[in-house]
Amino acid sequence: MSVTIKDVARRANVSVATVSRALNGHQNVAEAVRSRVLRVADELRYSPHHAARSLSSRRTGTIGVVLPDLYGEFFSELMRGIDQVARERGLHLLVSSYHGHLQEQGAALRTMRGRVDGLLLMSPFVDGAEALAGELSPTMPAVLMNSTRVAGARASVGIDNHGGAVTMMRHLLEAGHRRIAFIAGPDDNFDARERLRGYREALSQALPGHEPWVLPGDFDEASGHRAGQALLAADERPDAVFAANDMMALGCLFALNQSGVRVPDDIALAGFDDIPLSRYVHPALTTMRVEIAELGARAIRRLLEPGEQVEQAPPDLLAPRLVVRGSSRRPPPSPDQSQASSAGS
């Protein structure tokens, strides 16, 4: 038998009217009572009869945003895009971070119930689809950002990470680099896995039998710095380094600069994302430009689209664009070098 609102009221020891008010985000419910009702509804897997409602009947005027973190330029740009559209539509945002922990993700999602009319969620865990499917309420319109597909999501917006990594590798290979090291992101991260796959695929196609050179990373400056130090200590240094995101590339750049290694003369360097800081370091960073703010804007526009959003719809992928800057562009020969070359010929 299906669970009814009376079952929730009985278990939570409140009236049916209180359950209704708590689930629908009404303000005249004490927070302790609301939390108890939401917890019981979650435990009983209660789904109200209005599961098919869309944002056209919203009641709170608030959109929930649940992210793995709030720190860093990527998330700042993402929120800028979401916020711009929300302000244009007269909507408020309720933002929560689960600090990169899968267990805390469920708690963050549960706190959104009854408080928001729709949900934007970034869940990068490769093996977290089953857990996420159990946490997404069937009554809540939801759009996933840069996540694996799961049941219960109406739409998905993301980045073509694999294609972007292949494009960057082709750039480095066409520049004549053969020993290309890759600083990977977290093992359980969807974006990181796709970028690593693109690196491996491009390398195997261009240089069959060539061993990949992969160093661990964690999408932050510190792990990029550690990777740079490891490369400097290697018996043979790489021609180029491709970091799975710009933050790690910048950490690696710092390590190379500390050791007097010239970029790009001695080692070329490239990243992924094109965060604002990447163009203001020296040398400026070659990277794959992701319109991060547009990713957020596109996700909330997709959420606000009228009508039912079918979860079988293909993901809406943004194609990154190669931006070549000083960190991989070899400087032209000096006039003296050019004259010497001409004399030698």
Automatic annotation (TrEMBL):
Source organism superkingdom: Bacteria
Pfam families: LacI, Peripla_BP_3
Location of region: Disordered: 308-345
Domain HTH lacI-type: 3-57
Gene3D superfamilies documented for this protein: 3.40.50.2300, lambda repressor-like DNA-binding domains (1.10.260.40)
Alphabetized SUPFAM superfamilies for the sequence: lambda repressor-like DNA-binding domains, Periplasmic binding protein-like I
Any one GO MF annotation of this record: DNA binding
Record carries keyword Metal-binding: no
Keyword annotations of the record: DNA-binding, Repressor, Transcription, Transcription regulation
Residue ranges with Low complexity bias: 336-345
UniProt-listed PANTHER family: HTH-TYPE TRANSCRIPTIONAL REPRESSOR CYTR (PTHR30146:SF151), LACI-RELATED TRANSCRIPTIONAL REPRESSOR (PTHR30146)
Name of this protein: LacI family DNA-binding transcriptional regulator
Organism: Luteimonas kalidii
